[in-house]
Structures are given as structure tokens and as C-alpha cells.
Design brief:
InterPro entries: DDH_dom, DHH_sf, SSDNA_exonuclease_RecJ. Helix content is 58%, strand content 7%. The chain is an alpha/beta fold and 323 residues long.
């Protein structure tokens, strides 16, 4: 392996300047990395020593929500609904990113002590992917006036128009690539929008939900309990890893922070699956169990598992997921 890596590095060295080669050697020696790996890290971070150090240690601080298009508009719409005690419903998705995104916003509203909040996780067979007219219709019948999508909605033109025709307000938060035309939502939070100045375009859906939660808590000048903060950090790490979002920029820092929280027991359900939690644990042990719920049963089962804090219930719950 070492010979192969050395051969590849020699082949691509022609593309590096002497200064860049020197930095590659420095990084390789400092961190005990193969030259080939050091070269990739240096190139990924534009041969900037500060960025390289932040990348390796995961210390690059995330930006706050400023710069995300429609974030302020979304907060204003939510605050207006809350002021009138209107019913708000979060519509998620059946994969881990969608489930964790939903739980993040539920946790934010819990911190805000807002009671008129509900959620819906689509059934794969019955609903298909994302927001649809039936989901909107059911929300309307339940008296919901504000819909917030997480990890979906950017392509839900028909459902969005239907919600608007019923007099409902709709906020779309999504991280997927944009369709040729956008839905007629009251607000859209998606960093891929051309006029969105937010620098990090690779957030998972849970990262977008987290940003909206940050903005809401900032508006209310709220400092959530350490328990809720740690839970949200763990959820962001779980959703980011399971959606295979690139571990660069603030994703890297948020995953690192979330892993620390998870290893301190922030989400008891995760600790039941593994006493030591790593990126591999999230991606190959916890994630597949949760995704199986969305494929075989209901993503609601995955959410209930993550929400459970009673150890006497968690172990039987885990056995059910394993069966």
C-alpha cells in the first residue's frame, strides 16, 4: 500500500510547487500521515496552514444562520404563528436525515415551550417521498396553519400550491439540488439558491433544520438546557453522517461536537447500540437500524427510539430493531 501511494504521489507531484511540496511534507511529518493523504488534505484546504489545522482537528467554527436566504422571513412567519397559538406541523422524511431533522425542530419548540406543534413522517409505500397533497389535506383537517418541511419540499410544487390555496403558510427547508423552478412557498431555506450568500452549500437536511432552530432561539434570546443542546448536537452529527454529507467546513466541526455529546450519553438510544460512538458507529450500526424502520415499517419507529430515554424500554426496543 505504501509503495502504491508513493508511486501515485510521485506521479502527481508535478502539479505542486516547491512551497506546496514542503507543506505536504510538513503536514505528513506533523500528523503522521502518508504523503499521499497529506497531499489530498493540503489541496482540499488550498495549502492554507490554518485551514489545514482546522480541518484535521475539526476546529473550524460553524457560521451562524446569517446569510441563509429566507431565514429571517421564516423566523418571522413562525413567530407570527406562535403569537396566535396557531398549529404548526413539521413534515420530515423517512430516512435518518429526515427523522433527525424533525427531532431537531421538535427539540427547539420544546425549548421554546410551544405546545401547538406536531409532526408527520411520510410512509414510504403510502406517501412516497416528500410533501404531497394528502399530507397537506390531513394537516388542514387537523387545523394546522403553518407547515415546515425538513429534508424535503424543494420539488413539491403541487403540494405547496395546494397548501397555499387552502390558506396555509408553508416554509420549505431542504438541502437537495434545485429543480428548474421553485415551489410557491412563503419561504425557502436552501443554500443552493443562486441568491443565497451562505458559504457552506453541503449541509445535510438536519444542518438546515439546525440553522432554522438557531435563528429561532436567537430571536427569543433563548439559551436551551444543556440536555437539549447536547441532544441537538448529537442529532446533527447522526443525520449528517447518515446522509453522507461531506466532512468539510462546518459539517466537520458539527460532527465532532456531536460525537462528543453522543459519547456523553446525549441520546440514550445511541448508547444502547454502542458504548463507544464514532463516525463508523453512526454510519454502519445506528444509521442502518433507523433507516430500516422507514423501509420496513414506519420512520415514526425510528423517531420514537431516538426519543426514548427509559433504559428499561430501550433494550427491548433495540431487540425489535435488530429482529
Amino acid at each position: 500500500m505504501e509503495i502504491i501511494m508513493h508511486t501515485i504521489l510521485e506521479h502527481i507531484k508535478k502539479a505542486f510547487t516547491k512551497e506546496e511540496e514542503a507543506l505536504i511534507q510538513k503536514v505528513s511529518l506533523t500528523y503522521g500521515l502518508y504523503d499521499f493523504i497529506a497531499a489530498i488534505i493540503c489541496e482540499r484546504n488550498h495549502f492554507n496552514e490554518k485551514e489545514i489545522e482546522e480541518y484535521i482537528h475539526g476546529t473550524k467554527k460553524p457560521k451562524n444562520f446569517i446569510g441563509l436566504k429566507d431565514i429571517d422571513k421564516s423566523v418571522a412567519l413562525i413567530v407570527a404563528a406562535m403569537s396566535n397559538n396557531e398549529k404548526i406541523r413539521i413534515v420530515g422524511d423517512y430516512d435518518v436525515d429526515g427523522v433527525t431533522s424533525t427531532y431537531v425542530l421538535l427539540s427547539v419548540f420544546e425549548a421554546l415551550n410551544y405546545q401547538a406543534i406536531s409532526h408527520y413522517l411520510p410512509l414510504r409505500e403510502k406517501d412516497g417521498y416528500g410533501l404531497n397533497k394528502d399530507i397537506v389535506e390531513n394537516a388542514y383537517r387537523d387545523g394546522v396553519s403553518l407547515l415546515i418541511t425538513v429534508d424535503n419540499g424543494i420539488s413539491a410544487h403541487e403540494a405547496t400550491s395546494y397548501a397555499k390555496s387552502l390558506g396555509m403558510t408553508i416554509i420549505v427547508t431542504d438541502h437537495h439540488e434545485l429543480p428548474p423552478t421553485l415551489p410557491d412557498a412563503d419561504a425557502i431555506i436552501n443554500p443552493h439558491q443562486l441568491d443565497c450568500s451562505y458559504p457552506y452549500k453541503t449541509l445535510a437536511g438536519v444542518g438546515i433544520a439546525y440553522k432554522l432552530g438557531q435563528a429561532l432561539m436567537s430571536y427569543f434570546k433563548l439559551k436551551p438546557s444543556p440536555q437539549i443542546v447536547a441532544r441537538i448536537q448529537g442529532l446533527v452529527a447522526l443525520g449528517t453522517i447518515c446522509d453522507v454529507a461531506p466532512l468539510i467546513g462546518e459539517n466537520r466541526h458539527m460532527v465532532k461536537t456531536g460525537l462528543i455529546a453522543l459519547n456523553k450519553g446525549a441520546i440514550p438510544a445511541a448508547s444502547v447500540i454502542s458504548s463507544k460512538i464514532s463516525v463508523g458507529t453512526l454510519g454502519f450500526q445506528i444509521g442502518p437500524r433507523l433507516n430500516a424502520c422507514g423501509r420496513l415499517e414506519s420512520a415514526e419507529t425510528a423517531l420514537n427510539f431516538l426519543q426514548c430515554e427509559d433504559m428499561s424500554e430501550l433494550y427491548p426496543f433495540k431487540q425489535r430493531l435488530d429482529s
